[in-house]
Structure formats: structure tokens, C-alpha cells
Amino acid sequence: xxxxxxxxxxxxxxxxxxxxxxxxxxxxxxxxxxxxxxxxxxxxxxxxxxxxxxxxxxxxxxxxxxxxxxxxxxxxxxxx
Length: 80
Description:
Distance between the termini: 66 Å
Shape: elongated
Number of strands: 3
């Protein structure tokens, strides 16, 4: 775990970020005193693969699914 002064860290930030992404932990110091730690972020868990069309033939959408709602239903949403 190398300790780098803040001026050198600013100068070599890209290289330090690459090292941190590869798993290295870098301590950044100001006037010889550690003030920050540069580490890689944890990767989020992989999302399950979504397969398009997996419900084909199992779900039926009526032809009028986007028709306007009846007035009594709209009134219940609008609290009239």
C-alpha cells in the first residue's frame, strides 16, 4: 500500500486510478500525514439477463387496453 503525496497524486492521477481499479490501495498524504485512501469501487451484482418475448403466448393484451377510462373510475382517481 504505497503512500503518495498530494502533489504527486495530482500529477499521476490517471495512473493511480488504474492501479486502484486493478486492486491496489493507495494512500494520499499531505505533508507526510495520510488524508485519503484511493480504492476501487465494489462492482454491483450482475443483473439477470432479460430475455425479450419470454411471455409470448402466455399474456393477452385486449385491443382496447388504451381506451379512455369510464367517468366513474376517473372520478375515483380524482377524489370527486
